[in-house]
Amino acid sequence: MLRAWGCDTVEHVIPSHLLSCFHNLEVLHVFDCKAAQFIFNINDEDRLTKASGIFRLKTLSLYSLPKLEHVWEKDPEGIIGLQLLKEMCVGNCESLKSLFPASVAKDLTRLQVLDVTECEELAEIFRKDEKGEEGETTTQDFAFPRLTSLTLERLPRLTIHWSKQEVILTYIIKNLISKTHILSFLQYKNIFYNFS
């Protein structure tokens, strides 16, 4: 477990040159780090080598990070695989713009809890790749088949356009409702209006 708390000068919680050192990390909690802009720093050299592979990370908690813009500085494109991630909780990250790059989102098949609250700038759940596309993956690739709890609360800029993101999230919500799992879906601008 790694707990970063009150690290007011750190901009990258896990810099690119240390990615391989945290390969076996299972729990990462980052709290109250005022300068943190990214959790995982990815540089172009890392993209060429793709040496890090699957991380064992199971729990990722990010709270009170006022300058955090993205969890991943750049789309890792296979450098970091989070196939084991079960729980992601994010709160009070005012500058966060997106949660997952497209290449990471499709691998989150074990995700059970997704809790996102009070992120004023969050505009999208899945960040488009750097070419401006969401890729050619199917709805089922993003379906989070093991998701049991979804909380999206106080996210005033989160909008889902008539795009793949709406289809994906609607699919997730329909699955949660059909499985009668916990669903906390507050202040979400009535985007999902038809679940039949």
Q: Can you walk through the features of this model?
A:
The chain has about 200 residues and is α/β, with parallel strands linked by helices. It has a single domain, classed as Leucine-rich repeat, LRR (right-handed beta-alpha superhelix), CATH 3.80.10. About 15% of the residues lie in helices and about 30% in strands. The protein contains three helices and 14 strands. It has helices at about 45-50, 100-105, 165-180; strands at about 1-5, 10-15, 25-30, 40, 55, 60-65, 70, 80, 85-90, 100, 115, 125, 150-155, 180-185. Strands 1-3-6-9-11-13-14 form a seven-stranded parallel beta sheet, with helices on one face. Helix 3 links the parallel strand 13 (about 150-155) and strand 14. The longest helix is centred in the last third of the chain and has 15 residues, at about 165-180. The protein is globular and about 40 Å long. The N and C termini lie far apart (about 40 Å). About 30% of the residues are buried. The model is unreliable at about 130-140 and about 180-195 (pLDDT under 50).
